Each structure stands twice: as structure tokens, then as C-alpha cells.
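Board notes, transcribed. Complex of a protein with zinc ion.
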Amino acid sequence: MIMFPVIVLSCAFASVVAMPGIYNIVESVDNEVHTYNFPFVTREEWQARTPRKTTPLNTPVPFVVIHHSYIPAACYDKEKCCGAMRHMQDYHMDDHGWWDIGYHFGVGSDGAAYEGRGWETLGAHSLHFNSVSIGICLIGDWRFELPPVEQRKTTMALIAAGVELGFIKPDYKLIGHRQVRATECPGDALFNDIKTWDHFSPYPHSHHDLLDVEEIPDSVKELIRGNGTVPV
Ligand SMILES: [Zn+2]
């Protein structure tokens, strides 16, 4: 547990503390308090539904997986981004039958990070890869254009915070969703960009490599071989 002074911020306060260089201090749903040097919007603030169930994630994780939402489209203010988070959560819970929004975090084109499942809960964002990764969704369709600089910077800062807080291994590998699943996610433009980010790993190259990824537990490799069911 990481302890900082408990300061709970109201929504009205968030824009004030989000000024560059000033730490944004938020209390997460599990009552742990983290500090971030970028705007951070809690589940409570975007009015998340209660998860049906949660499973702990074994941390620190060795991988970070980058996604785009494709739909919803990019959002440029807190109100729209909160709506996008609710839309994704409804889609994941109601259409897919998952326990909660699949991602650990969303990041908006407003430059804010939005809490999804958070650091300590198993995600549902990359089939067969969830037990070894944190999944971050850059909200928007990034096939043809890049997310704004602030959105990319906040994503990098969120990953750095995850390392600092002990939830991501310092020698983590950064990959795009398409490297572990047959999907165009996170879009060509964003995928080409993350190839230049710190810690980008060209391996695994595709989901065909998954059985050879040493960090994936044997129980999950059994699932990949077609035995058993996949947790959502
Ligand atoms: Zn994805």
C-alpha cells in the first residue's frame, strides 16, 4: 500500500489542480491514494457502474498493451470523455457480458486519464494476455491520424506512474493490441507512433507467438491451446 496525505478533490477542483507541475491527488475506489502529474478522473467522477465481479491482478506486470476505442470517437473535454467511458462500460458489460469496462484506464484527447479497472484488478482487454498486462485505451479512432500530443504524453506519464507505484515492472514491454490478437487495434497511425515510445517491444509479433511468451502462465497457455474457458 502506498500512503500519501488523503486529499479528495471535487470535480470543480480538478481543473485547478491539473495545472502543469502541480500534482493531482486522488483517492481511488479502494481507498488508496495516488498522486499524478496529469489530470486523473476517478470512476466515481465518470459515474461508473459497479463491477459485477473483480479478480486481483498480479503486479507488477511485465507488459503494457495500447488500444484505441475506434468507437467512441475522440473526446476533447471531460464531459464527453466521461460519456465515452460510460459508453464503453455499457458495451463491455451489456454486449460482451464482461464484469466491467475491459480497460484499466482510458485516456482522452483532453489529456486526462480516466480510471477503468485501475491498477490492481485483472482486465479484459487482450484475450489470453490479461494476466500479464495493463491495458490502456486512447479514446478515439487512430487508424489515420495521431492522437493529440497531450493524449500521448498523458499515456506515457500514466505508464511512468504505474512503474513508480510498483504496478508495472521497470523493464516492462510496451506493445500494441494487434501484437497479441488478430485486430487492427490500436490503429495504424497510433501503432506506428508507439513503435518510437520507450520500452516498445516488437515481440510478440502476432498472436501466433503467444505460446512462446515466457511470462504467460501455463494455465493461460492451456486456454490458448483450446482447453478451458477464458475469464472475462
Ligand atoms: Zn484493442
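Strands lie at 24-27, 33-36, 40-41, 61-68, 105-107, 113-115, 133-138, 168-176. The two ends are 26 Å apart (CA to CA).
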